[in-house]
Amino acid sequence: MFTGIVAAVGKITSVQALGAGPDAGVRLNIDAGSLPLHDVNLGDSIALNGACMTVVEKTAHGFTVDVSRESLSLTAGLDAQGEVNLEKALTLAERLGGHLVSGHVDGLGTVRKFEPVGESWELIVEAPKSLAKYLAYKGSVVVNGVSLTVNRVEDSASGCSFSINLIPHTIQVTTLKHLAAGSKVNLEIDVIARYVERMLSIDK
Prior knowledge:
The protein has two domains: 8-88, Elongation Factor Tu (Ef-tu), domain 3 (Beta Barrel), CATH 2.40.30.20; 107-201, Elongation Factor Tu (Ef-tu), domain 3. The relative contact order is 0.19. The strands form two sheets. A seven-stranded antiparallel beta sheet has the order 10-9-13-7-8-12-11. It has four helices and 13 strands. By secondary structure, the protein is mostly beta strands.
C-alpha cells in the first residue's frame, strides 16, 4: 500500500527490452534522485507514477524494475526515459498523509487543461466512462502517483471530466509540472469507492 504522497522525483535512465517479440516487457533502470534506498531490499515495492513495481536490482544511485507488456499497455510514462514520481511502500509506523493507495492503475486519463490560476494551477482530466462513477466532489483520486482532491466533476456521454487545484508545493515536488493538454495520466480511484460499489451490487 501507498499514500499518494510523492517522496522524490526520479528518472528512468534506460529502457531495455526483455525479449524480441511484441509481447516482451521492459527493464527500467531508475535514478532514485533523493529517495533514500538504505531500507530497500530486492523484492520490495516502489510506485512509479502510481504503478506498483518490484525492485529486482539495486544500483549505486537507484534501482531496476521489470515491467510486463500488460502493465505497459495499461499505464503511461513507463516506456521511455524521463522523470517519474517515486514512493516507497507504506509501513505501519508512518503517517497517512494522503489516502490509502494500492498502486494499481485503474485506467488512463487525458489532460484537457493545465493552466495557472492565481498562485495555483488548475488541472482538468477527462476520465473514461468505466471510472466516472467512482469520482466525486471532494473525493480522492491518484494522478500519476499523486494523491489529490477532486474539486469538480462534469459527466458526459464518454465519461467525465474532473478538476483539481494544484498548490505550488505539489507542482514543485512532483512531475505534474510537465503535464500539458493531451497528456495521458495514470489514474487510481479511491479504494473505499470500490467497496461501496461491491456492497451495493450484491443482491439483498
